[in-house]
């Protein structure tokens, strides 16, 4: 069988203030396009089965637009006669039962199999059996279900699906407060393949224990990561990662701003931007150890002009004052200026230019204006 494994599509995710020609948040559209690429591949290659290992949606209550889009893509797979299994992830699993689940909307779709009740469900396809364990708000229930999961000797090929971090290996976790954990011993039980979701970078945790990774980049922690899906050939018991085309994300070379004036810093920013292919890209420029007074003098409108062809440009200053470092890029919390920029990106600003609000706010924070 040819099986396509993907995860963490986060349909409904949006960021920044850029809209497309239809007035829809551009990053939301990017996420749509990434998922559509995977469905296109499944249809073109006529795969036998699709496995989605959680976080189909970005939130427990996705928008009507996100639900409508997902419905359309899942119907494409259904109409082609391709069975699809989806387990719920932590982003779309309600913490309270009375909240309800968006997956009930999709129950009527033919060839679609859903696991979202917190308990393991088994799905059989000839001599293949898939053991699908969704995210669960009850960690004890998750542990009990995971401990009870084991390959079925009646089938020649057994696949485990789950949405969790892997304990003991700190890199394979997202550090989210509702994160569930699986151990090496729980995953190494003779499965022919383990289809993992939750960790956003594609990687192989153990022999045939694979994170597909997310299908888009959701922050600069993903800047150098390839995004895509995994194709599994059960006859050969081999898998291969396939990269998809997504929007470019660029982390410009950090500028060490010690003893530098605002004009000099601006000049280096320009050089960094000129060297990069910024058209349509998401860009970040980190300023290390910039004097707070010079930060206040930095012409934010200048950076807006030279990066106008980018989808989004942000400065991440780590400021110092009177020779003392007050924020660093390794701190748990960003500088106040950076937190302000992040906050603006998350809210809707009406009847005003968001860039002007950003510029004024940064000047106020830096003490440049009263």
Briefly, what is this?
The chain is of the alpha/beta class and 370 residues long. The protein contains nine helices and 19 strands.
Task: Give structural notes.
The structure is a single chain. With 370 residues, the protein is of the alpha/beta class. It folds into 2 domains: 242 residues, 4-Layer Sandwich (Purple Acid Phosphatase, chain A, domain 2), CATH 3.60.21; 117 residues, no CATH class. 27% of the residues lie in helices and 24% in strands. It contains 9 helices and 19 strands. α1 packs parallel to α2 and α8 packs antiparallel against α9. About 2% of the residues have low confidence.
Labels describing this entry:
6-stranded mixed sheet, Purple Acid Phosphatase, chain A, domain 2, elongated, 370 residues, single chain, alpha/beta
What share of residues are in beta strands? 15-25%
Which CATH architecture of the largest domain is right? 4-Layer Sandwich
Main CATH class of the largest domain = Alpha Beta
Task: Give me the Rg, rounded.
Answer: 23 Å
Give a count of the beta strands, DSSP E runs of length 2 or more.
19
Taken from the alpha-carbon principal axes, the silhouette is elongated
Main sheet attributes: strand count, strand direction, barrel closure: 6 strands, mixed
Supply the number of helical segments: 9
Mean pLDDT: 89
End-to-end Cα distance: 67 Å
In total, the number of domains comes to 2
Helical fraction equals 25-40%
CATH level 3 topology of the largest domain:
Purple Acid Phosphatase, chain A, domain 2
- One letter per element, helices H and strands E, the order comes to EHEHEEEEHEEEHEEEEEEEHEHHEEHH
Placed side by side, the strands forming the largest sheet appear as 4-3-2-1-13-14
Low-confidence stretches: 326-334
Structural class: alpha/beta
